[in-house]
Prior knowledge:
The complex is a heterotrimer of chains A (310), B (266) and C (533).
Chain A: H1 2-28, H2 34-43, H3 50-60, H4 66-78, H5 92-127, H6 131-144, H7 148-162, H8 174-204, H9 207-214, H10 219-256, H11 262-272, H12 275-303
Chain B: H1 7-29, H2 61-97, H3 99-114, H4 117-127, H5 132-159, H6 162-169, H7 174-210, H8 222-229, H9 237-258
Chain C: H1 6-39, E1 48-53, H2 62-71, E2 79-81, E3 87-89, E4 92-97, E5 103-108, H3 122-133, H4 138-141, E6 144-151, E7 154-159, H5 166-169, E8 198-204, E9 208-213, E10 226-231, H6 235-244, E11 249-250, E12 267-282, H7 292-300, H8 304-311, H9 341-350, E13 354-355, E14 361-363, E15 366-367, E16 369-375, H10 379-395, E17 398-404, H11 408-414, E18 420-426, H12 434-441, E19 444-445, E20 451-453, H13 456-467, H14 471-488, E21 491-504, E22 507-508, E23 525-526
Parallel strand pairs in C: 1-10, 1-11, 16-17, 16-18
Antiparallel strand pairs in C: 2-3, 4-5, 5-7, 6-7, 8-9, 9-10, 11-21, 12-18, 12-21, 13-14, 14-15, 19-20, 22-23
Amino acid sequence: MWTLIKHRIFQLILVVWGVGTLTFVLMRSLPGDMAYRIAASRYGQDSVDSDAAELVRQELGLDASWWQSYLHWLVDLMQFNLGASLVSGLPVIETVQHQLGHSVLLAFTSVLLASLIAILVGVLSAFRQGTLDHSFLWLSTLLRSMPVFVIGLMLILVFAVAWPILPVAGFGTWQHLVLPTVALALSLAAVSNRVVRNNTLKVIRAPFYQFAAIKGLSPSQTFVQHGIRNISVPVIVFIGIQLVTVIEGIVMIESLFSWPGIGHGLAHAIFARDIPVIQGCALMMGVLFVLLNTCVDLLCHWIDPRGAQA
Amino acid sequence: MMAQLNINQKIGVGLLLGLLLVASGIVQWSPYHIADQDLSGRLLAPSAEHWLGTDHFGRDMLTRIASAIQLSFVLSFFCVLTSATLGVSLGVITAWKGGRLAQGMDVIVNILLALPGLVLVLLFAAIVPGSLLVLYLAITLTQWVEYFRVSRAITHTIINSPARQLSEMMGFGPWYQFRRHIWPELTHSILTLASFGGANAILTMASLGFVYVGIQPPLAELGLMSVELFPYYAQAPWILVQPLLAIATLVFGFHLLAGNKHDSAH
Amino acid sequence: MTELSYAAIRRRKTRIKAALTGGVGLVLCLMFVLFGQATSNNQTRSNTLAISGPWEFTSLEPSKQGYIYTRMNILETLLNVDTKGALIPGLARTWQSSADEKTWTLTLQPNVLFQDGSPLNASAVVSALRIAQGKHGVLKKAPIKAIRVKNPQQVEMVLSQPHTVLPALLAHYSTAILAPSAYNQEGVVSRLIGSGAYQLDTFAPPHKLTVKANPTYWGVKPSIEYAQYLTGHRAESRILQAKSGEADIVYTLDAAMLEQLSRADNVVVHSDAIPRTLLLKLNAGHPFLGSVEARQALSLAINRPAIAEQVLHVAEAASDQIFASSMGAWYLDQPQENYSLEKAASLLAGLGWQKDDQGWLVRDGKRFQLTLTTYADRPELTTVSTALQDQWKRLGVDLKVDVTNSSMIPSRHADNTLEVALIARNLGVIADPVSLIANEYTQGGGDWGAMNWHSTQVDQALERLTTQSDPVQAKRDAQLVATAIYQEKPVISVANYQQHNAVNTRIKGYQFDPFLRDYFINKMELVDHVDAH
């Protein structure tokens, strides 16, 4: 277990450095004058002009060569200082924290809901082969064929416009959370319910499972005693993978529902050339990725210690 | 090759090939061009002249959809081809040689995996807006990692298999060993991954259109079209449905092609 | 190591349970914290006005997003602008200049309190203006020598040369007056304390802010207790918010989508002209665009009525001059130029352009190919440039469209790589457009105006307009400038803007400020107090 954690810490450091450097290089190679870009975001499209750009250039010292700013950034990073947003002037850590709270909330609720749906649907379709299984298969294939923003749009049209019981966009109350969560959860569950189904099927067809039934356990006892644990390992691993892909969906869902999360913040920062914020967001996502994977590993280790040496 | 496919996969192949052929045929023989506007004939319902109606500029929808499907196909094909070649060759070499190379690749893969794919593509698309080449490079860059991981894992087990070791001892060269032992084991997983890769490339392109980066007008692209046409969902729902349906059909086709085993691909 | 005992299994089970409970607890805590903030005050739908608009805000600085704060009635400026563009008193009751027009004296309204209870007096105004002068904004460019306290109720501004637009600058959001306690030592705004009818209640950049009625307001006392501003990035989401009644007022709707609101009985759409013009900025230094005839030909090849009606969905928006009729002295009272492809073609033929077999214009072996730069902030820019692309293609001009960020316009202007740009220019940023026009159309042009275009006549007229205040001469000069821009086409106007706002029927007293400085929240009322819960 300690080797695993040591390995992960090493990975974390690597990821922080790598992600930071990669975004730095990419952002430096964006076309157009950075000062103008930042000025446009700061002062709005009607007030951006050469004067504003000059002001920005002087204030931020954008004339410095790239290696100077890179070294500067690296030194700051070692002191856990992510710098200040070029646009708002607020510390990046504050901005990212604020956004992260919203994103984590959205991500967790949707993954939770997705797992619930997936486990229910997956187990059900494994036990009831036939039409039910088939219709779920078609439904999930259909949902998977749609980009997540299309699902979001359809939910809005149904539950906020045609039948106005939920708000269209915004944040602040639990009602605002429902539609984005459901949209994300549906697109996630569309994939994971099949994983649950296949694993369940594998387990219930396994000799040990059938033996448990033969030895006289009731179907529910068999499932609880021998099913759940064996099904859960691959499912948890898969949900761990999904947690990472959820970030992609979040970029679009957050934009559609005006949800002030990190994906949305990142997309905006990219357009605004707000390098510190981009690095902050990307770093956070990288760190989250490593942490989540560690959690998943540890959880699997608890459930099934046999995999520890792998 | 075709014989190994099950019925669903055959349907998938048929669907995709059919779409591609029809789309190319339409682009070839359509009397309209994707940029031909007729502002007095906007949002027309399907008719003999415009089989799928016209969009908000009076452009022929059939031509635009066909051209967009073609574009999606071409792009996703090249993305899949490049990322599969790159991923598989690197994966096999890494598993075979190991050592420093493996450690170095580990670092790169970890970094790439930690950045959500769409974010990376967004960054790239922001660097050179509207360039198909950059879009292709970015999608390839995010996709090759999966081929790499899978082929590396599979190769790893085969390298240690007695059969392969026997081959080596008998003096067969690396190329033969690869052809005889590794490649047959890889094909199935690679095909599955490639089908998903194709679907993902199409979805990524559509997503980029949705956040307004990617393609510049008047080029027809499915994601951009669905955003552009969304305002008319009440006035002319049939034109909004078309790009969405096209995306869904394409992705569906790829999923069918991936076959039933796809769920355990991860 | 793999030895399993029942106790171990039990322990492991407890651990998993603990981990799960922990996870769920974490989510609940997060929900509680995030929602707790928003619901900590006693806002309900019946006492809160919900406003939705596309503008984000990131900073409290008036020089950056000050327009949001003046619109939300938090900040006020010394002077205000009425719907016709005339200056009216704001925090300053009167404003007069000395005989040499180099000294302006402003008399403040009596008994005005800032939201922190401190009085608004000359020294507070002077310090706010001096800070504003040091930041990006309109005051920075004005020839101001000194801003000083004359007496507790009067402020004096001394200029190095006459500057007729100075009062109009004092109506700009970047010159809003904040309380002395709003700034920290470096002059950065740390708390938003103004003198307006509403005070900032919660601030969650970049999406949401709420304001609370200020009971000590000196002007029209507000009736609505709370107002909330929510940024909605996508036009499609915003219109649905209007439709569902979730937002009471939605600013800036997409004209293409308005039809779906026509059937909604709880929403009224108001369309008003605003002094913003959709125009093409041409690089007069470009070899193809250097001659007046070439620019005129391009203008003749634009089918403005079709664009206005079919693309912008407002037939009366078409306009071939950059100044709208609301701009008074600057508007040229004349019929619109007719769309004529033949005339355009013959003008270009006169310049030596011939069509090749593919239909493109060619001269000396070079194709008439231009790149149009525009930006994605405003969706209509992309659609109009797509329409232009097609219309100019009929003339034989090959137009490439490059949709990027708005900053690329000044940036490409600066490095002289711009060929054509489609921009939406707000000529009403400052109530009096003189300083804006002077910046953008003299000395070869400016970032958002002409480019490499020189006219001594216009330079002189604008010089007179900024320094002399004879109304008759001013009118003549304004007409001269407008005519020169119209005839020589350093920029080509396509259409004027209409802003579409959706207003819920429960709002009484809705007013619209075409200069977008004020939402008049203090003058509105909510009428359905019935469905309060």
